[in-house]
């Protein structure tokens, strides 16, 4: 099992997007998740740092500059998706990645508080 680490920069970016009302509350993450082609296009435009910024965790043992290094996406390269945060939290919980689960939960709570305002 991979020892994922929380990507603090991505968590900060997600918080900023939530605070700027750049989110989707109702979506099916399986339909909204970026395709491999979308990922490749984003990589060409934004590089590996831009790609990493959309993933809540990374695997320090995976090769750098590979998609396999990054996990738990939270959005579509433009907005945070509540469904992506739920999926990340569930998957992290199922695989005993407590720090990632907590990061996703914290973002969910922030999103729910923001939408209630």
What does the secondary structure layout of this molecule look like, with pairings?
Elements: E1 5-6, H1 8-19, E2 23-24, H2 29-32, H3 36-52, E3 55-58, E4 70-73, E5 80-81, H4 82-94, H5 98-116
Parallel strand pairs: 2-5
Antiparallel strand pairs: 1-3, 3-4
Helix pairs in contact: 1-5, 4-5
What is this structure, in a nutshell?
By secondary structure, the protein is mainly α.
Tags for this model:
mainly alpha; globular; 117 residues; three-stranded antiparallel sheet
Q: How many strands in all?
A: 5
Strand coverage percent: 5-15%
Helix content: 55-70%
Number of helices: 5
The value of Rg in angstroms is 13 Å
Strand order of the largest sheet: 1-3-4
Q: Which word captures the global form?
A: globular
Roughly what is the average pLDDT, rounded to an integer? 95
Order of helices and strands: EHEHHEEEHH
Uncertain spans: none
Structural class: mainly alpha
CA-CA gap between termini: 40 Å
Major β-sheet profile: 3 strands, antiparallel
Task: Characterise this structure.
The protein is globular, with a radius of gyration of 13 Å. The protein has helices spanning 8-19, 29-32, 36-52, 82-94, 98-116, and strands at residues 5-6, 23-24, 55-58, 70-73, 80-81. Helix 1 (8-19) runs parallel beside helix 5 and helix 4 (82-94) packs antiparallel against helix 5 (98-116). It is built from 5 helices and 5 strands.
């Amino acid at each position: 099992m991979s020892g994922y680490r929380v990507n603090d920069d991505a968590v900060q970016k997600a918080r900023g997007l939530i605070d700027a009302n750049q989110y989707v509350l109702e979506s099916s993450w399986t339909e909204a998740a970026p395709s491999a082609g979308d990922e490749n296009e984003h990589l060409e435009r934004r590089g590996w740092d831009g790609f990493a910024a959309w993933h809540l965790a990374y695997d320090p043992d995976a090769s750098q500059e590979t998609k396999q290094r990054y996990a738990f996406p939270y959005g579509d390269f433009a907005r945070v998706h509540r469904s992506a945060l739920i999926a990340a939290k569930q998957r992290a919980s199922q695989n005993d990645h407590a720090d990632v689960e907590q990061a996703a939960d914290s973002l969910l709570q922030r999103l729910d508080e923001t939408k209630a305002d």
